[in-house]
Amino acid sequence: METVTLDDARRVIAAAEAKAEEIGQPMNVAVVDAGGNLVAHVRMDGAWLGSVDISINKAWTARAFDITTKELGENSQPGQDFYGINASNEGKVMIFAGGIPLTRDGQTVGGVGVSGGTGKQDHTVCEAGATAF
C-alpha cells in the first residue's frame, strides 16, 4: 500500500512552516500516513500548546474520511448529513479548517493537519503543505 514516508512528511512540514512564517503565525503541523498514524509533527516556536493535539487530530480526520476538515465541518452543521460526526471516534474528529488528505495517483495515502491560528490561516498553511506533497 502506498503511504506517506518520513521524507514526504518533512517536505510537507517545511512548506507549511514557510507559509506560517510568511503570514506571521506560528503553527503546529502534523502529518499522518495511510493508516492515520503520526509520521511527523512540529510545533513552531510560539505556537499554542493546546493546538498540538488539534493538529494531529485534523490530519487523522482528513485521512480517516478522505475529505478536508473544512468541507467536513460545512457538512456537519445542524440539518446536514454529518451533523454530530465530531462526537464519533471518542471526540477525535475535527470539523474546522486545517486538515487536508494527501493523495498520490488518485489514492489517499495520508493527511496533513495544521492548528494555531484562525480557520482561514490554518487552511492556508495546510494547503501550502499539501501542495508540497
Automatic annotation (TrEMBL):
<dbReference type="InterPro" id="IPR038084">
    <property type="entry name" value="PduO/GlcC-like_sf"/>
</dbReference>
<dbReference type="Pfam" id="PF03928">
    <property type="entry name" value="HbpS-like"/>
</dbReference>
<dbReference type="InterPro" id="IPR052517">
    <property type="entry name" value="GlcG_carb_metab_protein"/>
</dbReference>
<dbReference type="InterPro" id="IPR005624">
    <property type="entry name" value="PduO/GlcC-like"/>
</dbReference>
<protein>
    <submittedName>
        <fullName>Heme-binding protein</fullName>
    </submittedName>
</protein>
